[in-house]
Design brief:
Length: 420
């Protein structure tokens, strides 16, 4: 095997596979791959082939997640679950989620090539819907695995009007069997996820890896601002009820209130209707994504946003309605598994691993309902850009991440055996 971090190495194979999966997109240009799409089915099949080549038995679970299991020295032993997601945001980068799935498969491939069987099995989950791009509510795949599925989600519809229920059946899944995605209670010893940082801090610190302390809790809303459409020339200002002007004040309030509270908030989508250049907008639909390290701080920001929106509505003669579309509480990594990731990073020669709080959401937020979890962050370059085609990771960083991830898995297996 080529030395780590060189062409032909395991790390190069991982990057080549990221490039291969990047070609599976519904868009003519860029990477867009959503839950229960033909592209989702194709990347599941490709990942299954790589899992099988790594000595795993594979299956697609009842929620469309691609799964694999590398048996323990004692068949049927509890497993450490590794994973991340294969779905993307629109016009995505090629490493968000995908790198974590491929690092997981590469760890198993190393064990398999070495003929090693651990005291625990190693399972991999390639989750199908971390982003929530298609149906608005995120973490659907990992929540099914965690056993926290909400039947109210069956009525969610995508932008074509297809319900989640119909998308399930079109993908060959049985909605009534979604609970089968959850592994038996007690069958997991923990969940480890490797993921690109999606931020600038590792690059600024000139470090390759970090252990994650916690993940911000996120809430998403759909805002509807209703005014009165009218003639762009004929209606004097004092008679206007301009939904877009009002919504614009609210967007700036979202930014200011979140920033002042140390949270983050984004209006990622905003549409004005009827959309004529010479028509005063009578209706605006906008999204709000709001996150905080602590749920209480985040929720206080939302209350302040609603209060300011009410003032804008009153002053401008508008109505403002907010509908929550997603909510995931902040989660703290389990100390024992965080130590295992720290041990893995230390095994690569970084004696004092960096710790980072994740403002980006991850499947670990959902899996936290089922088992202990920890995450390994990998530096991404170009200022940490992500959710963008310019997302980038370095070959050497992937190599050291693979070494750290393998060491963390071996450490968790050893600790589990000692504790047995
Ligand atoms: O939005 C997030 O933080 C994640 O990438 N889904
Ligand atoms: Mn993402
Ligand atoms: Mn991600």
């Amino acid at each position: 095997m080529s030395p780590a971090g060189t062409p032909g190495s395991d790390a190069q194979t991982i990057l080549d596979r990221c490039d291969e999966l990047a070609r599976e997109s519904s868009a003519a240009h860029g990477i867009t791959r959503v839950y229960l799409s033909p592209e989702h089915a194709r990347v599941n099949a490709i990942a299954a082939g790589w899992m099988e080549a790594a000595g795993m038995t594979t299956w697609q679970d009842a929620a469309g997640n691609q799964r694999g299991r590398y048996e323990a020295e004692t068949p049927g032993a509890p497993a450490v679950l590794l994973g991340s997601h294969l779905d993307t945001v629109p016009d995505a980068g090629r490493y968000d989620g995908v790198l974590g799935v491929l690092l997981a498969i590469a760890v198993v491939d190393r064990l398999h090539r070495a003929g090693t069987r651990l005291p625990v099995a190693v399972e991999v989950a390639a989750f199908g819907d971390e982003e929530g791009t298609r149906f608005g509510t995120a973490l659907l795949g990992s929540r099914a695995l965690a056993g926290t599925w909400d039947d109210a989600w069956w009525q969610l519809v995508d932008d074509q009007g297809t319900t989640l229920r119909d998308a399930f059946t079109a993908f060959g899944l049985d909605p009534a069997a979604v609970a089968d995605a959850a592994p038996p209670r007690g069958s997991l010893v923990g969940y480890l996820e490797a993921h690109i940082e999606q931020g600038p801090y590792l690059e600024e610190a000139d470090r390759a890896l970090a252990v994650v302390s916690s993940i911000a809790g996120a809430r998403r809303f759909e805002l509807t601002v209703t005014g009165v459409a009218g003639h762009a020339g004929g209606v004097p200002f004092h008679r206007r009820h301009d939904a877009l002007a009002g919504a614009s004040e609210i967007v700036l309030a979202v930014e200011r209130l979140a920033r002042d509270a140390g949270c983050v908030a984004t209006v990622g989508r905003l549409q004005a209707f009827p959309g004529g250049v010479n028509v005063i907008p009578g209706l605006v639909e906008a999204s709000v994504d709001l996150r905080g390290e602590h749920d209480a701080e985040r929720d206080a920001v939302w209350e302040a946003v609603l209060a300011e929106a009410a003032e804008v509505a009153e002053r401008r003669g508008l109505t403002v309605e907010a509908r929550e579309t997603h909510s995931a509480p902040a989660v703290v990594a389990s100390p024992a598994l965080r130590d295992v990731v720290r041990e893995g990073i230390a095994a690569t020669g970084d004696a004092d691993p960096m710790t980072l709080f994740s403002k980006a959401g991850h499947d670990a937020m959902a899996v936290a309902e089922l088992t202990d979890w920890a995450m390994l962050f990998v530096r991404c370059g170009a200022g940490g850009i992500s959710h963008h085609p310019d997302e980038i990771v370095g070959l050497a960083d992937v190599a050291v991440a693979l070494d750290a991830f393998e060491a963390a898995v071996r450490a968790l297996a050893a600790r589990t055996a000692e504790a047995a």
